[in-house]
Write a structure and sequence with these properties.
The chain is an alpha/beta fold and 463 residues long. The chain is built from twelve helices and 22 strands. The longest helix is centred in the first third of the chain and has 20 residues.
Length: 463
């Protein structure tokens, strides 16, 4: 059952639409390198497409009616969008659920120190990373510093061509004999992922300040540019991410190389599909969550009550809330857990089972189950629902393939699917295949990005 390469089916109109989508997607990746930045950018685009804040609408006493387009945001890191359909909400919704967090390095709360005339920021890595991939590459700082008075300072350093970058050093090859004998997981230790941020001492006369003159100079710069003190790091969220813009990849420009495509490639295509919906019969929803890379925990992860509470508010705004109606609404939903899949890489073919692998350029991927080894931690969609999704994709000429995440005993991974399934709704993982997943720079196919958007729109219309 080998699937054909989607590129072979495209005419001029498809290629034009695909290139436009890829261009817009690259711009989104550049604007959204953190969860907060993604939410800010998507709220801006949603409002430009007629969406209004649900909380504002309810506070004004306005009733939610069919045709309304509303969104809700939680702690500036998670959001849900709804295009209200003609059917009662109790009959369920068609949901596209993705996550907008990505592996990175987080700056610790007490991070700044000086060692031998060099200033550093201490970090703690976030999500599953190969630590050795993060050294000796250009890095940027994104995030916020919140001061005691409640004022929020936005920080982006390293993206403008006139900005400095920051950096993690590696041991020179000439002295790396012992280092190269270590296992890959130990070549770079987590506590050694410290960010080099300065080497110029502040020229002061007092002996005390001269002891950490480089650190003092960094603090001077932060004070002048952002009006923050060292203690303000205690209430900061600063993320270290690869510096630089998303780029076309390959001499044929068939791919996109960028940071954060897991899972922003599915988040963005899901969002675009929502924006293109017109007068749905059944309510459409796009849910974009945080914290998936560390287990979907916390107040902004899928395990939180954010989504359930937002649906409750939506029902209240329609004048039909009750606990039973809420439960029925969630149970009757159909969902695509829009998350990426591991693209087959011939350079590491021994880790994949070819008949059940995802291939770049062959369309969106359906993962009936994820998990590890014996499907541990998996949702494992039922056959009836898989058949329904297959039919939707075929009826709408969507190129799709099915896959597992590598050979049975090689590894594994998870998504938000099993959490949504706890409500009793039908869920299946469906996303774009990625090469070098969780690396600082990942690679996707433009064809798969295009097919994902088509698939998500078809699902919202017909599920």
């Amino acid at each position: 059952m080998e699937r054909k390469n989607a590129w072979l089916s495209y005419g001029e109109a498809d290629e034009t639409a695909m290139e436009k989508l890829a261009k817009d997607y690259r711009a989104f990746l550049d604007a959204g390198k953190t969860e907060r930045e993604c939410v800010t950018e998507l709220v801006r685009e949603a409002e430009a497409n007629g969406y209004v804040n649900l909380e504002t609408k309810l506070a004004a006493g306005e009733k939610i009616q069919p045709g309304d387009k509303v969104y809700a945001v939680g702690m500036k890191k998670v959001m849900a969008l709804f295009h209200v359909g003609q059917e009662p909400l109790e009959k369920g919704m068609n949901i596209l659920g993705a996550h907008i967090d990505s592996p990175r390095l987080d700056v610790k709360q007490n991070p700044l120190y000086e060692d031998t005339d060099l200033a550093y920021l201490d970090t703690h890595y976030y999500g599953g990373v190969k630590k050795y991939q993060w050294v000796a590459i250009p890095l940027a700082i994104h995030g916020v510093i919140v001061k005691k008075d409640g004022s929020v300072v936005d920080v982006v350093i390293g993206e403008d061509e006139n900005d400095p970058i920051v950096y993690i050093t590696d041991l020179l090859i000439h002295l790396a004999g012992k280092q190269l004998q270590k296992k890959a997981a130990e070549v770079i230790e987590g506590e050694n992922l410290d960010i080099l941020i300065g080497s110029r001492p502040l020229n002061e006369s007092t002996d005390e300040k001269q002891k950490e003159a480089v650190k003092s100079n960094v603090l001077r710069i932060l004070k002048e540019k952002y009006d923050v003190e060292e203690e303000d790091f205690l209430s900061a969220e600063l993320e270290i991410v690869p510096a630089g813009k998303a780029r076309d990849c390959g001499l044929d420009r068939s791919m996109v190389a960028a940071y954060g495509q897991d899972d922003r490639v599915c988040a963005y295509t899901s969002f675009v599909a929502m924006m293109e919906m017109e007068a749905p019969k059944r309510t459409s929803c796009c849910l974009l969550t945080d914290k998936e890379e560390i287990g979907s925990v916390g107040a902004t992860g899928m395990q939180s009550r954010f989504f359930e509470n937002t649906v409750a508010e939506l029902l209240e705004g329609m004048g039909c809330y009750s606990d039973l109606v809420l439960r029925r609404t969630l149970r009757n939903c159909s969902m695509l857990s829009s998350d990426v899949s591991a693209g087959y890489d011939p350079a590491y073919g021994e880790c994949f089972e070819k008949k059940n692998s995802a291939y770049l350029g062959r369309g969106i991927v359906l993962n009936k189950f994820t998990g590890a080894r014996g499907k541990s931690g998996s949702n494992d969609a039922n056959a009836e629902y898989v058949a329904k999704v297959r039919k939707i994709f075929d009826d709408n000429q969507v190129a799709f393939q099915t896959a597992e995440l590598g050979k049975v005993d090689v590894g594994g991974g998870g998504t938000i699917a099993y959490i949504a399934a706890l409500y009793g709704m039908n869920v299946i993982d469906s996303g774009v295949s990625v090469l070098s997943m969780h690396a600082p720079w990942e690679v996707t196919s433009k064809a798969d990005i295009y097919e994902a958007k088509k698939a998500y729109k078809a699902f919202l219309l017909d599920a």
